[in-house]
Amino acid sequence: LVIDVRSEREFEATAVQGAINLPLSQLEHRIREVAADEATPIALYCASGARSGIACMMLRQMGYADVRNAGGL
Fold it and tell me: 35-57: buried (b, 16+ CB within 10 Å) or exposed (e) per residue?
């Protein structure tokens, strides 16, 4: 599962093919909509890797085990 944690506007401008847009500000409340199973492999990206790094920490704290920061575009 590839998740883009940038804003909707950034996502609309350019995105990785097949990625799902879940902005960092919504991630905690909406992650279970796209990854109900905490064992789901998840790659997160943003513009620079900073927001996706925060998202990785957040998801690990929530119990997601296979999460990685794919960096920035």
Answer: beeeeeebbbbbbebebbbbbbe
